[in-house]
Every structure is written in C-alpha cells, then in structure tokens.
Amino acid sequence: MARNTKENGDSIDPASVASNVKCSFKQDIIKDLLNSSFQDNKTKLGNDALTLVVEVAKCLVQETCLRASSQALRDSCDKVDLEHVEKCLPQLMLDFP
Amino acid sequence: MTTFENLSSHQKLRATVHRDTKSICSETCHLLGLEVTKPAMEVIAELVYKKISVYGADLEAFAKHAKRQTINADDVKLLVRRNPTVLAHISELAGNISSKEKRRKTSTPVAKQRETPAPKWKEKDMEKSPVVFRPPERKDVEAEQGMELDIDNMIDLTFE
C-alpha cells in the first residue's frame, strides 16, 4: 500500500506478502457491523460494495501488520509487540482516512 | 462462565472481528517469519472494529448525498480516494466484480450458442491474468478455513 519505507533494506516485499495471505473477514460480519452503524434504517448495502469494504478492512489489517513488522525488524526483535504497533499507528491513521 | 452464546449481539460481532483479525495478523507475520503478541493483535482488531463503524457512517452519508438508498462500489471508491494505491487496488477489484456479473448475465441466455468458444476464452484469461480467477479459489479456501475454525472454535473472550 502506501509504503515508502525502503530505507532499511530488509527483505520485506509487501506486495508479495499481501497477495499470499488467504484469510479474510467474513462478509456477513462486516455487513452486520456496517448495518449497525447506519443511522437511517432505509440505507441498504450493495453486494459489490460489501466485497470492497471487506477488502479495504483486510488491507488495513495487513498494512498495520507489515508496518509493525518492519518496525520490529528495525528494533531487531523477533516478536511484534504493542510498542511496534503503537509506533506506526499515527502514520497509518493518516494514510487510511 | 462466559460463552459465545451469552454475549450480546454487539459483543458477538466484536469477538468475531477479533478472531478474523487475529488470523490475518498471524498469517501475515508468519509469512515474514515473525511472531505477533496477543495485545498487539487486540489493538489492531479494536482499530479495525472502530474504523469499520466509521466507514459505515461515511458510506451512508455518501449514498445519501448521491440521493441513493443503496451503497454501491462508487461510494467505497470515494471512501478510499485519499490513498492512491488502495484506490487503484479497489478499482481493479470493482472492475473484476462488475465484468464477472456482466458475463454471468450474458452467458445464461446464450449459453448454448457459446458452448465451444467459452472454454477457450477461459483458458486464455487464465494464462493472461490469473487474478481474474482468484475468487473461486478463495471460496474453497474459505470453506476449508470455516471447517478449521469449527474444529478449534475457542474464541477468546478476554478483551474488554
């Protein structure tokens, strides 16, 4: 995604990792969650829109993981901990509106 | 004792989002050869939960502004407009979905006439762009995952 961190030269290739992840969110879960956040009961969710929102959510999770992972590698840890996630949160929140 | 059935619907949604997020997180990080700690995954899950709720409100507002009652793909594109790479990814996916639907609609009435050329077309497509045919594979994978998840159906309910 919107990564411009090539400076540390580690062996992360975000695109290949992101395309290899098979898990995803269940569509009906996201649908229920979106429906519960609608204020107007008349609003409906199209099928293609639901697929796209699921993909956006998956992107968000993967992006957070990849950024936290590169942060962990930079700190030479082999476990991604809370501090690594916290460190990359502000930029992530700017990149995902 | 807290079981999944005793939770309110909101808590159930939250627990399920947490479970899905954890599986994506651990898969992504294992591909990189790293471990993820539980608090880190919980923070990410909570982030996703809140973010999707906000997306819901935004999407509703976008659809309302376009004087529609149904949210469609254009609203989602508008939602991610500020991140060009995500926008490109989503647009590509939206194009795939719409072309597939069109193909399904046209193929049902003229299925008999196109019996011979259709398989060739598929083969060509497979060679050119395997991306188009990814969703069927995913369905299989999802089914497998569903079975796995049923087996180890231990949802962690220790979050707030």
Description:
The complex is a heterodimer of chains A (97) and B (160). With 97 residues, chain A is mainly alpha-helical. Chain A has one domain: Histone, subunit A. In chain A, 62% of the residues lie in helices and 4% in strands. Chain A has four helices and two strands. In chain A, α3 packs across α4. The radius of gyration of chain A is 16 Å and the shape is elongated. Chain B is mostly helical and 160 residues long. Chain B has a domain of 53 residues. Chain B has six helices and two strands. Chain B is extended, with a radius of gyration of 20 Å. Chain B starts with 8 loop residues before the first helix and ends in a 9-residue tail after the last helix. The chains are: A mainly alpha (97), B mainly alpha (160). β2 of chain A pairs parallel with β1 of chain B.
Spell out the key features of this protein.
A: 97 residues; mainly alpha; Histone, subunit A; 4 helices; elongated; disordered N terminus; B: 160 residues; 70% helix
What is the N-to-C succession of helices and strands of chain A?
A: HHEHEH
What structural class do helix, strand and pairing data of chain A support? mainly alpha
Name the largest protein-protein interface in this structure.
A-B, 60 and 65 residues
Mean pLDDT across the residues of chain A is 84
Low-confidence stretches of chain A: 1-10
Tell me the quaternary state.
heterodimer
Q: What distance separates the N and C termini of chain B?
A: 15 Å
Radius of gyration of chain B, CA atoms, in whole angstroms: 20 Å
The biggest beta sheet of chain A reads: none
CATH architecture of chain A: Orthogonal Bundle
DSSP summary: helix tally of chain A: 4
Give the overall form of chain A. elongated
Report low-confidence residues of chain B grouped into runs of 5 or more. 110-120, 128-139, 146-152
How many domains of chain A, as an integer?
A: 1
| CATH fold label of chain A | Histone, subunit A
Measured between the Cα atoms of the first and last residue of chain A, the distance is 13 Å
**How much is the average pLDDT of chain B?**
76
The rough form of chain B would be described as: extended
Largest sheet of chain B: none
Number of E-type strands of chain A: 2
InterPro entries (chain B): CENP-S/Mhf1, Histone-fold
Protein name (chain B): Centromere protein S
Family (chain B): Belongs to the TAF9 family. CENP-S/MHF1 subfamily.
Keywords (chain B): DNA damage, DNA repair, DNA-binding
